Amino acid sequence: MRSEDAPIAMRGVAPQAADLLSNDPGGRSESSSRRIRIIGPPAFSAGAVFSGLRALIQYSDLLYVLSLFRLNIRYKQSILGWAWAALQPLALMAIYTFVFAHVTKVNTDGTPYSVFVFAGLLPWIFFSSSITNAVHGMVAYPSLLTKMYFPREIIPLSYLAAGVADFLISSVILAGMLAYYRIAPTWNLFYGIPILVILGAFAAAIALFFAAVHVRFRDVGLALPFVLQVWMFATPVVYSLQAVPARFRRLYLFDPVAVAIDSFRGAVLYGRAPDARMLAVAAGEMIVGLTLAYAYFKSSEATMADVI
Predict the structure, then answer these.
(1) pLDDT at 42
(2) Is 80 left (phi over 0), alpha (psi -120 to 50) or beta?
(3) CA neighbours within 13 Å on the CB side: how many for 269?
(4) Cα gap 302→179, rounded to integer Å
């Protein structure tokens, strides 16, 4: 190639890349060159899902670092520190115990209402707080979205990972309550793991969808607390599944959150194995919801930096 032709051959190439190529005949430099990421127009497709998952795996270290960052700053400069993770369910347990054990009665099959409601509050608070923090977290750090590229779903997913840590801390309180009331756990307790996986994945689906919408329409963040409050009373958190009329129960259990909370409480308190059919339906809804929500999130990713 003639020297006067070099600028023509490298037209459209970034100046840094042109310098690297001109100085290195092999197209490489001794110093590592930065890869250029081309973000195309929004596209709702299966290809966007698979390419997004590949990128998410490549940036898994960033997801780990941001998750630790959430945990480090959540209770920074607070006197009680990590105890706040257990105070919220304990305070709600005290309020609901007073209302539903003294003002009105709830059938708990002989289990003390305090541990009954606490076993329902733990998965619900994990679900609702993860969604709330993830949705608001997308607009909390606009400089991250506008100054550098990374898979944007890392932000809401890091809040979900922090919610797992809070759940584990509160689980210590639940274990103490089981010991206090002499409720012996059974091997069916381990069903709680797949149940929580389904609930966490469904929370990720809701968080990804509403986080993408919230970037464009801030009404989502204002309406979310009300929606979650109504949703809580539409799931068996403070009451048992048997309190739901039988004619509505089949429709009621189409909610994966209701299935997960009732199944978790049954496995922890009563040593019951979850209904395999209901759990399979909830898992199927979770997979479909997570796939569609992730596809929508990736389709909106290209314009997030422009509208935030």
Answers:
(1) 55
(2) alpha
(3) 23
(4) 51
